[in-house]
Amino acid sequence: MTKVGVVSLGCSKNQVDTERILGCFSDAGYTITPYPQEAEVILVNTCGFITPAKEESINTTFEMAQYKEQGNCRLLVMSGCLSQRYGAELEEAMPEVDLFWGVKDSEGLVRKVSQMLGKPSDCRMSGKRILTTPSYSAYLRIADGCDNRCTYCAIPLIRGGRNSVPMDNLITEAKQLADNGVKELTLIAQDTSAYGSELYGKPMLAELLKELCKIDALEWVRVLYAYPNTVTEELIDTMLENEKIAKYIDMPIQHIDPKMLVDMNRHGTKEHIEHMMRYIRNASDRFILRTTVMLGFPGETEEQFGRLAEFMKEYPFDRVGAFTYSPEEGTPAAVRDDQVEESVKQRRLDAIMQAQQDISLKLNQRRVGRVEKVLIERVSGNTAYGRSYAEAPDVDGMIAVSGIKGKDIKPGMFIPVKLTRADTYDLKGELFS
Fold it and tell me: 215 and 342 in one domain?
């Protein structure tokens, strides 16, 4: 059988695309290999979100090109966001690549590869995914594309407007994943909280969550990428009322200064963000809040940066991802003449993250003494490492669990753990019985 190797770059949404591509290759009779030197087909599924991601995608593709000389590679393929947006330019600049493909039609991609190799290409595709996550945890992409049109973001230029997956299809996919051993399901999209708006006339994330909770085999359902303006009291109440839903929401605010929000074309207001922060904190002292903020957007003054810094002290988040503004071709913000100097961006980023370390430590320390259910991810000697509801996969810290000597503890198991110590990002605990 022809062997295919796939390198997946970028976000979890791109990772789901990779899993669908792998499923199509498997259906078409290919063997999947993790070793590029063995692969006759190598595919790099690229990211094109910001400049460093573009550079990583190009460099990785060049690295894979060496296997055309040193390995078995007959066909080098570039797919994904970077290829979608810059396919024509890349085709001219990278003759090493045999096929450029975008972000749509995984089945068409595999059929094209088969055609180029002279293989039969009339195989029936099942639509299954081959997970690249651990067998007990998976992402469920509930929509693709985005309608928000933030002035700094190229995603709508790459993936188009929001295209929500019909709820029945999502429930079917979730049941299939659960039947195959998935216990933790993490919902993702460019804007999860607006899910279904264009299909059903209103956001339907709360209704989708309720339906997913009816799947017996699922233990946790988690929500990432919730755009603030469609995070509502109803959504939070749904999350609180259902035991399977992790009391955790990722709500990227990007900024809090009103003018910055307008300049970024961020829908919603400072007042709504503050209201939802108060509502969530008053509803439960165990609710985990994550956000993302951008430093150095064009025109950001010291005063506006100061408002953001003060807001984050007054309304503390448990988890914060911060990054500096990067001008992206084709976006309105990129052509503004009031760009912020790189040194200023970096200084602001450092200040935010330094302050957040103290906040994260204090919020983690509040959890010491609690007993929490922990999903074990690996075991090393007499210590197990895992995550509670408060730690999302890939982006948050871990809990180191002692007291497991002589116990049959394996990855994928849920165990009760009493938290004994908290650091800035990670915690320690002991098996509780």
Answer: yes
